[in-house]
Design brief:
4 copies of one chain form a homotetramer. Chain A has 5 helices and 2 strands. Chain A has about 130 residues and is mainly α. Chain A folds into 2 domains: about 70 residues, Winged helix-like DNA-binding domain superfamily/Winged helix DNA-binding domain (Arc Repressor Mutant, subunit A, Orthogonal Bundle); about 40 residues. Chain A is elongated. Chains in contact: A-B, C-D. Chain D binds a DNA duplex (15 and 15 nucleotides) through α3.
DNA sequence: GTGGTCTAGACCACA
DNA sequence: GTGGTCTAGACCACG
């Protein structure tokens, strides 16, 4: 099995992921204006073109819309955002299960280990 | 020069991870001889130097030992392997929890979502 | 410096086209007074200078005439307007045929496709 | 009605259109390799990045696929290409009908004018 | 000021 | 050699 070593995700996609999470978990609210391309470029320490590409991708995904000469805004469509949120969570769970199965862990064990981990964690950080 | 963006893990480390998993989950048993550097290089489709670095790293981690003129063998130390196995699993769980928390998911929800996912999955793939 | 790519037609020419169509299809009748340069500029959301150039061009084309102190009027020459109308229609047809030929569509097919399109369209919008 | 003047389509989209037509009408056959990004850039008198963007868009549209280190190829899916062809033709027809209607031409007249135009054209260029 | 496009030139992983 | 990403710096149309 030659040839399947992951090269790092492109920067503009890493930013896409970051912003998507921010939007989906409500850190950026519906209708909010995102920082301008140039601002965001400075914040991220990246070239404006890279951010531009990020914003294009976000628009293509439909979770952001741009108004000419005004800026880029979180789309006002709660349903879409919910859907994206669900899909992201599912991907995380799926990844987790796959990796655990690869380690030879059964489903019952996964549940047990997770429960244990969360309970230990709760002494410092009760929830 | 942005620096907060992850570049891909070096290939030799990706192979380290892969072999570690193979050993820890018993695909490579205690005392087994690993393929020679050249063989492994062919199998992985990479340069022998890369495999050499991989084996060095595995030896440094203590889960493999080289016998001059004979080859590279999985170390005969069940306790160590157990420890490594536990540590790997913990890392996977930790990563999962962090990502879910980043999405604003509470611990209760994590358990519920995972349970649901595993149950859905079981129709085709009962375990 | 690539040069074979169309840059957008100047705005004043786009307005020329628009007004020409309005006149030729009778939305602006023979002898009608066009809005003043300032009015039209507001209507179109452009600079008055731009409209000025538009009116000059329309006058050069002969389909409009300016009377000092009174305004700009559609020329009272039905024949000329007919001619312009025919020429515009011909340009549209020509453009259509060229594009279809570029797609490798034969003349018979053009007729057939157009007929089909118009008939489908007629369920909602009979004419 | 201020504000609807067409700015020229971006160069990379003009190239997209051009290549799409070439593919769809069979000038570029199924499985054919497109010129490399750099070659095409020279041919078109354009920056390689612009062509790169064109190729990305073509891939996004699904009518082209790229093989790492090998090149960009026309996708081997006759059905998809047929569909695209139909859609392009429809767009041309639709544009034609809209413009003619804007000129106050009825459907019957469109058919008649087109027929007449095609027949006149046939003296030089019989088909 | 905003987003969008384009060029020039560079570096990367891949085959 | 191929496609893909990134930077730097420029210009545009828009509100």
């Amino acid at each position: 099995m030659p040839d399947e070593f992951q090269s790092s995700k492109p920067i503009y996609m890493q930013i896409v992921d970051k912003i998507t999470v921010d939007i989906v978990r409500g850190k950026q609210k519906i209708g909010d204006k995102l920082p301008s391309v140039r601002e965001m470029a400075v914040q991220m320490g990246v070239n404006p073109n890279t951010v531009q590409r990020t914003y294009s991708e976000l628009e293509r995904m439909g979770i952001v819309e741009t108004k000419r000469g005004q800026g880029t805004f979180v789309v006002e469509n709660e349903d879409l955002l919910s859907e994206v949120r669900g899909s992201l969570q599912n991907k995380i769970i799926q990844n987790f299960v796959e990796k655990m199965e690869e380690m030879g862990v059964t489903k019952q064990e996964m549940m047990a280990y997770l429960k244990q981990y969360l309970e230990e964690d709760s002494y410092d950080n009760p929830n």
